[in-house]
Amino acid sequence: MGGKMTKAFINILSDLSHNINIYYIATNLIQLSLQRLLQDDLSQKGRCYHTSSSCRACRFPLIKRTQSLHFRCGHAYHLECVVAKDPVVCVECLGDKADQFSYYINSLNPKYPKVKKVE
After folding, report:
1. Is 46 a domain residue?
2. Boundaries of domain holding 19
3. N or C: which end of the chain has fewer CB within 10 A?
């Protein structure tokens, strides 16, 4: 009986060692992927502060004393030049003029959008 118990115990320990190795490898992979995500996010945030020096809507320069809104795409606006109350999207990056127009119209009253995009 002692030999069978020893073999079973050795099998359990080898399985445990194998599981610990898999856990260690998975932990390292997750740490590496999270580190890459954080580095990418940091580089995007760093790029956010290197925006244009003029407003994309009125083309006048942005002065440090005035409040402005900067997007990660690199575009910047005066707060007076932004139509939406809480802009989430850079209007310049919407691309199509129809999309920009519908964004402006819908931002006037976001509870009741006037224009719906038809696919």
Report:
1. yes
2. 1-50
3. C
